[in-house]
Design a protein that fits this description.
about 20% strand; six-stranded mixed sheet
Length: about 180
């Protein structure tokens, strides 16, 4: 009887002894590296301040980086630059230039820092509500990766809409013009 009990105990315990150890959480940097090859034209990557809302659309993945916004943005831009398939169309809140230091200490310094990080890029400004609406609309069909930072200055988020690196906007316009000429 004791042998049967021991055999049953070993049989039941065996899966636990051979079970895989719990997985370590993936860092935000690793997640960006994993996601970027899958992302393409019309996907978005947002690098946002700490008060950015958690969106409920199924196409939105949010990661709390606990890192400075300019650091996260630099890492993401480097990953995009190293990719062969995407380039960023960059948007920022139109409200940011009007945020005073008296209401948001450090706003002027942030504007200077972000200008340094984004110096080589064209940045388009839109009101915050319009950017949120674009992202919400995109998330109904396309993946959006939101990287939350420890930034505490309002309207400091950076919105990257991914575009095709190997097909320019000018090439697209020429293609559409040819297609329109054929239809006539």
């Amino acid at each position: 009887m004791l042998r049967k009990f021991f055999a049953l105990a070993v049989f039941l315990a065996a899966p636990a002894l051979h079970a895989a150890p719990p997985e370590e959480p993936v860092s935000w940097q690793t997640r960006v590296t994993q996601a970027l090859p899958l992302l393409g034209h019309r996907n978005w990557i947002l690098i946002v301040d700490s008060a950015y809302p958690l969106q409920s659309s199924p196409g939105v993945e949010t990661i709390d980086t606990k890192a400075p916004l300019t650091v996260v943005l630099g890492v993401v831009l480097n990953e995009i630059e190293d990719s062969e398939h995407v380039r960023p169309d960059i948007y920022m809140d139109a409200e940011l230039p009007f945020v005073p230091d008296q209401d948001a200490p450090g706003a002027s310094q942030y504007r200077a820092n972000i200008a340094d990080v984004l110096g080589a890029y064209t940045v388009q400004s839109l009101p915050h509500d319009k950017l949120i609406a674009r992202v919400d609309d995109a998330s109904k069909q396309f993946q959006v990766l939101v990287l939350k930072t420890n930034m505490t200055i309002p309207y400091s988020s950076v919105f990257l809409q991914l575009n095709c690196k190997y097909w320019s906007d000018d090439a697209e316009a020429r293609l559409r013009a040819k297609m329109g000429a054929v239809k006539k």
